[in-house]
Design brief:
153 residues; mainly alpha
């Protein structure tokens, strides 16, 4: 759980909401225009085939064409999914003891930081073992408030 939360926090740090919003709006505009183009193209093909061969033949040809496109896209997506899921490493089974995960996380944090970071981690661990979860939550809220006020000046 802590590893997933850490990954989420890293992803949020790299997330740029304005760029994401522009990308979503652009993708929606492209999809809208593609849908309109496909609709008008289908109507034009139906009108042309209906006039020359009859409405039943036109409907059959258009539905067969869409069916073939759907089968090809479905096959391509199935191959892509099989190929992409094959290359992923298997997820290890979670340990029965959650303290082992916590110890591994703390060891990795202690090994990669500066000496000042390691001292802060040791101090936080000492305080964390002595306080209850509610007291830790209150302490983190209060310290976050003061840290926010210090950076705002």
């Amino acid at each position: 759980m802590l590893r997933g939360l850490h990954r989420l926090l890293l992803a949020v740090a790299d997330w740029h909401p304005r760029d994401f919003l522009i990308g979503v709006i652009g993708a929606e505009a492209v999809m809208l225009l593609a849908t309109l183009s496909l609709g008008f193209g289908t109507f034009a093909a139906y009108t042309h085939l209906s006039a020359s061969e009859g409405p039943v033949f036109a409907a059959g040809v258009i539905s067969a064409a869409y069916g073939m496109v759907a089968i090809m896209v479905g096959g391509a997506l199935a191959r892509w999914h099989a190929r992409s899921s094959r290359h992923r490493p298997a997820v290890p089974a979670p340990n029965e003891n959650p303290n082992e995960n916590l110890e591994a996380l703390l060891q990795s944090l202690a090994a990669t930081g500066t000496p000042q970071d390691q001292m802060a981690l040791i101090a936080a661990l000492r305080v964390g073992r002595e306080l209850s979860p509610i007291e830790l939550l209150a302490l983190s809220l209060i310290s976050g408030f003061f840290a926010g006020r210090q950076t705002g000046k």
